[in-house]
Amino acid sequence: MATNESQQSTQLIAVNLFKYSAATALMHLLFAIVLVFTSREFIAMDYASYWLALLVCALLSGLLCKSIFNRTKAQQSESFDKWENTLVYPTIVVSLLFALAYYYAVTNTDPSLWTMIAFIAVMHIGSVVMACLYSKKIILASILPVPISLLAAFMIIALPLPYILAASVGFFCSLLLYFSLSVNRSLVTGFNMQDMYEKEAKQSDYYRTKVETSTFEDPQTGIFNRRIFDFIINEEIRRAKRIDSQLSLVIIEIDCFSEYQAHYSASKVEECICSVASVLAKATSRGGEFITRFDKQRFALVIPNGDKLEAFAFSSKLLDFVNRAELENLHSSVEGLKTVSISIGIAEFTKGSIIDIEDITAQALTALATAKQKGGNKIATFSEEMPRTDTLIEEKISSDITSEKATSHV
Q: In the predicted model, what is the mean pLDDT of residues 63-86?
């Protein structure tokens, strides 16, 4: 095999060679019987018996190689090319045995059988080559010995008819060799193109996955980003309206994040966000639930077919998981805590509701703001009595500005 052929192409060639080797052995045996039967009156049957025994041994050695290959091909790594060379040896032996037989038959039979023997030879060579087009070496080993022996036998006889038969056999074998080598090149090229296509397809799949990941994955935390949240909440609300079911939206925020930013380095801030995201992601591993990045210090979770009681129970677990993580925040203003904590707001889409994405998101943010107003590390479920979200956001912005001014002044 050429050294620049890929391992995948080499494997395909070896597999196809051995795939048809049993049929080739039967074909050889059939033509051997036909040749012996045709020239039985002019040859010594003892010689024919010895020759058939040698031929069967050579064919069996090829079948033994096939058996070993089939048992070990699953464990092959880079040695498929050696199996082509292994098959060449019994092929050469078989071809030489037939070359000897055809030479003997031509030089020892009646002239009336010369045309029949030549016809048997070309049919034999043509049939065998059709099964070994995958290998240039096997083609040459199968074609060359027999026509050379026939040409030599006919030329030795030195009569007009043998000359014509020699020319015919030579012309046929030359065409057969030319076309079989052309087909071999096309097959090898096809295998290489298939291998290249598979590699390109794998690379394309890799880059497509990479693009999808980079499009829908938050690069900082590794969880899904806001784009995925918008898609999930949109689809779930549409589904809930269609089948008259319910869902809950949970929005989570890291408490005292402004204070954390003011007293810790940027790397610690990023580590804090990633750690909280990791805790939340591990806690939301159930099917249909995905923790997503809502904005800088907020995360969102959609709970399909879950009411606010289920959402509250699950949110309590999230709150507990973050507390147990014991992420340091010595400047937390949450009473009794010097670790990172979260506040959670819950909004419910009830059966038959007509609210849209903006409404349920605003409700969850309102509940979240209420939980933070209560001191943080709390869970609040939206109710109509809660203050408007925009008022709470204005108050938070004003508070953040005041805090930043105080920090810069210090």
A: 75
* C-alpha span between 283 and 314 (Å, rounded): 9
**Listed residue (356, 366, 359, 358) closest to 394, CA to CA:** 366
Q: Which of 367-398 are b and which e, b meaning 16 or more Cβ less than 10 Å from the residue's Cβ? A: bbbbbbbeebbbbbbbeeebeebeebeeeeee
The structure's pTM equals 0.49
- Cβ-proximal residues to 271 (8 Å cutoff; 6+ apart), any chain: none
Contact 369, 389 (CB under 8 A): yes
- Strand locations in 243-358 (E): 247-254, 291-295, 298-304, 342-349
Per DSSP, 77 falls in state S
What does the block give as tokens for 292? 């997503």
What tens digit of pLDDT does each residue of 244-263 get? 899 999 999 999 999 999 99
For residue 351, the tally of other CB atoms under 10 A from its CB is 11
**CA-CA distance, 252 to 294, in Å (whole number)?**
9
The answer for residues whose C-beta is within 8 angstroms of residue 373's C-beta and 6 or more apart is: 392
Q: How many secondary structure helices (H) and strands (E) does the chain include?
A: 14, 5
Q: How confident is the model at residue 219 (pLDDT cuts 50, 70, 90)?
A: confident
Count the Cβ atoms, other than its own, within 10 Å of residue 36. 17
Residue 340's contacts (CB-CB under 8 Å, 6 or more residues apart) are: 254, 255, 260, 272, 275, 276, 322, 325, 327, 328, 329, 332
pLDDT in tens, 363-387: 999 999 999 999 999 999 998 776 6
Per-residue buried b or exposed e for 144-172, using 16+ beta carbons within 10 Å of the residue's own CB: bbbbbbbbebbeeeeeeebeebbeebeeb
Q: What is the Cα–Cα distance from 22 to 105, expressed in whole angstroms?
A: 26
Tell me the backbone φ, ψ of residue 381, rounded to 5 degrees: -105, 135
Residue 1 has pLDDT above 50, yes or no: no
Amino acid at 245: S
Instruction: Report H helices in 112-225.
Output: 114-129, 136-143, 145-157, 160-216
Q: Report how far residue 112's alpha carbon sits from residue 93's, in angstroms, rounded to the nearest whole number.
A: 29
Q: So what's the pLDDT on residue 62?
A: 85
Rounded to an integer, the average pLDDT of 391-399 is 42
